[in-house]
Amino acid sequence: MNSVNLAAEYGWGPNHLLYLLIIVIIVGAAGFLIVMLTSRMKKQTFTSKKKYHFERYWAIFVAAVLIYLWVSSYPWMPPVAFSSVTSGQQNQQQEHSPQQQQMQVVNITAGQWFWLMNKYGSHTPFGQSPHVTVNVGQPVKFIARSIDVNHGFGIFAGPTDGSPILLQMQVIPGMDNVFYYTFKHPGIYLVRCLEYCGYAHPYMTSIIQVLPSGAGNPAFPSTGGSSPVVAGGGAGVGV
Amino acid sequence: MQKAEKEQSSYPKIPPPLPEYDISPELKKLVIMFMGAMLINFLIAGSLAIGMRIIQTDVPIYKVDLIPQNVLWYALLTAHGQVMFFGVISANTLWFGYYALSKWGRKPISGMKWAKASFWIMEAAVILIFIAALSGFGAGWYNLMPLTFLPGTPQMSWGMMAAVLFLVADLLVGIFLTIFCLVVFATLLRGKLPTGTQIFEYMHERDEKDRKHEDPLVIENQDATKVEKEFVHEENLSPSVRWISLLGINSWFPKKLRDIHPAVPIVLVSVFVTALVQIVGNPGLFFQLAQGFLSLQNPINSANWLLTKNAWWFFAHPIVYFPLLVFLGAIYFIAPRYGKERITFWKWNYRTWPFYAAFSVLVFSHHVFMDMPNPAWLQIVSQTASLGIVWPSSITIITILLFAWRSKVSWNITSRFYFAGLAGWMFGGFQGTETGMWGADIYLHNTMSMPGHIHLILLLGPLLFAFAIMYAIIPDLTKKKMNKTLGEIHFWLTLFGGFGFALLFVFIGGQGAIRREASMPGAFDWAMPWLLFFALNIGLAQFVLVYNFVKTLKRKPTRQEISEYDKLHENPKALGITEGAP
């Protein structure tokens, strides 16, 4: 089964982006400092600076870098990343193909200030569970709908705050908002609302449990047990 | 008078190298009014931000009895963002835009009454925003509908009247922005404009052997033993030539055509492009507001909220270039001057402007990268434009740095502020390059990286540029110079607080801190006191600026200041400026 790979799978995850930014800022700041210090050196005329055509070569260099970034980022663009699992869906004759049968579909309802998640084919009645369980290594199709305002469906790479973001999408009222993803590791993943939706927005959280391959599909333990669920936000506020 | 002369430490060391045209007293008064109102708005909106910092330093996430504090936090957020955008940094564009139109255009602005009206409408909008915030309105500065009408538990947050007040305030914002754009067009698209050609980049040649240039036109007009001359005459350009010149397109012509085709002063190009970009974007705001007014009774089902959001950002990305572009034009002018160069029509100053004009509008959709129902082609165009606008920005930065390279720059308050502003804008641009890629934005959208980006790009970019220009032109407006010691304190505190604040935002955003969270998760508690500390530094710095500004306005000019002012305006040849075509 094909897997959905985002930028992180290509080595451009949030930590990489942050470290790259820090390096570039340091280099840029050093460049500024050097230029400032040259103001103490013997003056160089405008004409003698101009003869190196520095701006021309700089323009060519920057254009090349930007083209490289655009081309590199093409596989991470969501429609391209999703195409590894969605291409089979376009052919109606393959509606019940093995690929379709392995696609996990999670319906999400967002409102002020709660998440309700339901996996297609699970035993949980639709719209009644704040949590959901999926299997590792199999693509998941998230379909999110809002019953009131804009929300932001965000999954973090761990069970607690302080983990980087794994994926996100906006949940716009009146529309089906779809995102595909393949979880690579089992565990508990924190879900937060990422779009300000009212005063209790910070408490709009939930979790997704990802089971190891071959673990079946048990119902999520309703008592919480020892799972590191984020307290106080799982079922939402003000429902 | 004698006491003032003793107390006044001179700034700048040399007179600001501005064109000799003296703008009208009426326009000077309007510019001063804008500056004063901007500073007041800045202090108030900044205080709101410090309130936000104070709340976030203390609030743990799980205490539900602090929900009223959340309502307050979001109201502060909304008012802070809107007033900073429309009452501070946009106000800077208005005062400098009007000033530059007349100063570099060498004529009165067309529509002085409308320019004055734009000031009062701007302040009315700011007041309404504050009133809405006092009524609890907290839908965010970007007013993401339908939250405007569905705050959840209205009795605890805000009611319909507060929402309507806010919509009216934004309507006034759209009106004053439109008035500014129309005044710019009326001034620049009619009548004469000062022009020169880019052959005069050769006029400043002086090599070590003092060799004279071979071009006969240069030889005829060059006086190698005296100060450089600025060859400027005024022409009533035909419409096609006027547009090509005002967009900087002629700088891309082949050298022979470039030597013939007239170029207008770079500052006028920047003002024109600013107005053009904004007038194209303004309908987006009016569309969003119309959707809002029509949805008052039935906010859930009455509009296409994706289209409304796209319309808002079609307006709101140009608005972030609105405060920036005019000051880039000013820096292109002022940077070589402070480096003891007089490069009037250097082609690389102009080459970036057609790209700024085009890409500033096309990038808008990168604000809605995470809206999956948007068509993929729109997002791909936006990513292309988002990376594309890095290109002219990088050329601007390198051109300014090359002016400074081994140029014996006078490091006064103006040059330091614009250099710091250039660095802040550059750092924000690096980050913008990352978020401008659709796939990378998945990890950065709606994190604290975004406020970090905004504060780098706007607080530490255009705002610092505006401060640089303020210090440079106050003597031209008032015949008085700002106090140098207070200016130094303002500079260093702003630099320290501003960069500390913004870079810390960027760092915690990269760690997964989410924006617009009244209750910041506990994992980031360590950063909150530091953010408060840096914010207090910025705030203190602006009080110093306001004190300096008011003190300067209230005192009488010294004899030396009056003499310098008169010398600049009555004897243009003192700066080697001549009129008449070569």
Largest sheet of chain B: 3 strands, mixed
Structural class of chain A: alpha+beta
Q: In total, how many domains does the architecture of chain B comprise?
A: 1
Q: Roughly how many Å apart are the termini of chain A? A: 38 Å
> Judging from the principal axes of the Cα atoms, what is the shape of chain A?
elongated
- CATH top level label of chain B: Mainly Alpha
Radius of gyration of chain A: 24 Å
Question: What letter string, H or E per element, gives the SSE order of chain B?
Answer: HHHHHEHEHHHHHHHHHHHHHHHHE
What is the total tally of β strands of chain B? Answer: 3
Secondary structure: helix percent of chain B = 55-70%
The average pLDDT value of chain B, as a whole number, equals: 86
Biggest pleated-sheet summary of chain A: 5 strands, mixed
Our measurement of the CA-to-CA distance between the termini of chain B, rounded to an integer number of angstroms, reads: 45 Å
CATH first level of the largest domain in chain A: Mainly Beta
Query: Can you count the helices of chain A?
Result: 5
CATH topology of the largest domain in chain A: Immunoglobulin-like
Chain-averaged pLDDT of chain A: 81
CATH-scheme architecture of chain B: Up-down Bundle
Summarize the structure in words.
The complex is a heterodimer of chains A (239) and B (582). Chain A has 239 residues and is of the alpha+beta class. Chain A folds into two domains: 7-81, no CATH class; 98-211, Immunoglobulin-like (Sandwich), CATH 2.60.40. Chain A has helices at 14-38, 46-50, 54-73, 78-86, 98-102, and strands at 104-111, 114-119, 132-135, 139-146, 151-156, 165-171, 177-182, 187-193, 205-211. Chain A is elongated, with a radius of gyration of 24 Å. Mean pLDDT of chain A is 81; it is low at 90-99 and 217-239. Chain B has helices at residues 2-7, 25-58, 67-105, 112-134, 160-188, 216-221, 239-246, 255-260, 266-294, 305-316, 318-338, 347-350, 353-362, 376-388, 390-404, 413-435, 438-444, 449-459, 462-478, 484-510, 528-554, 559-570; strands at 193-195, 230-235, 577-579. Chain B has a three-stranded mixed sheet with strand order 1-2-3, with no helix packed on it. Chain B has one domain (2-204, 224-579): Cytochrome C Oxidase, Chain A, CATH 1.20.210. Residues 1-8, 204-210, 223-230 and 571-582 of chain B have low confidence and may be disordered. Helices cover 65% and strands 2% of the residues of chain B. Chain B is mostly helical and 582 residues long. Chain B contains 22 helices and three strands. Classes of the chains: A alpha+beta (239), B mainly alpha (582). At the A-B interface, helix 1, helix 2, helix 3, helix 4 and strand 5 of A face helix 3, helix 10, helix 14, helix 15 and helix 16 of B.
